[in-house]
């Protein structure tokens, strides 16, 4: 019996060690992704306004909308087009879009065939946190790029055609923000 307990404890310790190493590897991967995102922004978008919010980075491509008074808040409705990309050192593989032009240019099929503009009630949990944090504060007519590490995306889950631990980039075209308050 003592031998069985000793074997069990040894196996348990080995499993904990392996789990700890795997967690460290994931944390290093995320730190590398966040560094690559910062490098990409400072290298390619230093002249653009960037909003950092809870792990998400929003590069505002069209700054003329910044003068508009109403920005997206929780409880509002949002209508937008998007193109989602895997991010390595820049946006690379398109994995989803509802923008017909982007799909056509990329030889991709529109992901949301039933409607072209995505419509959502914007809440704290309506999408993955990287999108929620990045979209908070957008304005009607805004064109932006959202960038975030796997920590704020799908993390360790394989979703659709997105590999585990993938940093993501979304190009967003905001069609309409409807204040519901």
Write the layout of secondary structure elements.
Blueprint: H1 2-44, E1 49-53, E2 56-60, E3 77-87, E4 91-97, H2 100-106, E5 118-121, H3 129-135, E6 143-148, E7 167-178
Antiparallel strand pairs: 1-2, 2-6, 3-4, 3-5, 3-7, 6-7
List keywords for this structure.
28% strand; 181 residues; 3 helices; seven-stranded antiparallel beta sheet; Chitinase A, domain 3; alpha+beta; 31% helix
Account of the 3D structure:
The chain is an alpha+beta fold and 181 residues long. It is 31% helix and 28% strand. Strands 1, 2, 3, 4, 5, 6 and 7 form a seven-stranded antiparallel sheet that branches.
CATH architecture: Roll
Level-1 CATH class name: Alpha Beta
Total domain count = 1
Helix content: 25-40%
CATH topology: Chitinase A, domain 3
Main β sheet profile: 7 strands, antiparallel
Task: Note the beta-strand portion.
Answer: 25-35%
Structural class: alpha+beta
Summarize the structure.
This protein has helices at residues 2-44, 100-106, 129-135; strands at residues 49-53, 56-60, 77-87, 91-97, 118-121, 143-148, 167-178. With 181 residues, the protein is an alpha+beta fold.
């Amino acid at each position: 019996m003592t031998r069985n307990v000793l074997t069990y404890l040894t196996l348990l310790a080995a499993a904990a060690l392996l789990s700890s190493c795997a967690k460290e590897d994931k944390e290093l991967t995320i730190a590398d992704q966040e560094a690559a995102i910062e490098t990409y922004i400072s290298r390619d978008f230093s002249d653009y306004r960037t909003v950092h919010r809870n792990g998400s980075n929003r590069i505002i491509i069209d700054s003329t909308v910044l003068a508009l008074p109403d920005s997206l808040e929780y409880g509002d409705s949002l209508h937008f087009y998007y193109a989602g990309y895997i991010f390595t050192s820049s946006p690379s593989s398109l994995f989803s879009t509802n923008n017909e032009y982007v799909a056509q240019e990329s030889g991709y099929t529109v992901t949301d065939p039933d409607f072209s503009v995505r419509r959502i009630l914007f809440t704290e949990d309506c999408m993955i946190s990287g999108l929620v944090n990045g979209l908070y504060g957008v304005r009607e007519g805004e064109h932006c790029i959202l960038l975030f590490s796997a920590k704020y995306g799908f993390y360790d889950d394989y979703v659709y055609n997105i590999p585990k631990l993938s940093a993501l980039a979304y190009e967003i075209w905001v069609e309409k923000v409807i204040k519901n308050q």
